[in-house]
Amino acid sequence: MRKAISGDAEAVARLYLQFWEVHKDIDPLIELKESPTRANQIEEAKKAIRKRTTYILVAVEKETNEVVGFIEFLIKKNEDCFKNKEYGYLDACVTDKKHRRKGVARELTKAAITFFKEKGITYVRTNIYNGNEPAQKVLQTLGFNPQSTIMMKMV
What we know:
Elements: E1 2-3, H1 9-23, H2 38-50, E2 54-60, E3 67-77, E4 86-95, H3 104-118, E5 124-126, H4 133-141
Parallel strand pairs: 4-5
Antiparallel strand pairs: 1-2, 2-3, 3-4
Helix pairs in contact: 1-2
């Protein structure tokens, strides 16, 4: 596990494509303006890796040095009226289809939590869609608890 570098953009893009494949019909608020392609996802991955406010860690298979997963996370600012001024936010975590159920997402999430602890962050939040039971199970084994339900209506 290591911090993503610009040379990882193509591998991260491949994983973004797997992410969009699953999420394309789940939430209309995250519908992309244009269909995800290898080229535009490489550009998005390059931007995300360069971004100073977002952190990306990649999981690398030892034997092949192949990127098999990544986690994207950030520190969010809370409103001034609240006691806790910052919190950690897990934005996306993707494991390659061939490497699922091997603990990759679990280890990436643990590494992000360690990062937050080192930065003095006491709370970590994420959003998981109701149908994503594997992610829910991983997070619950790491001590995450359901906190709220987001509801939406098209008008």
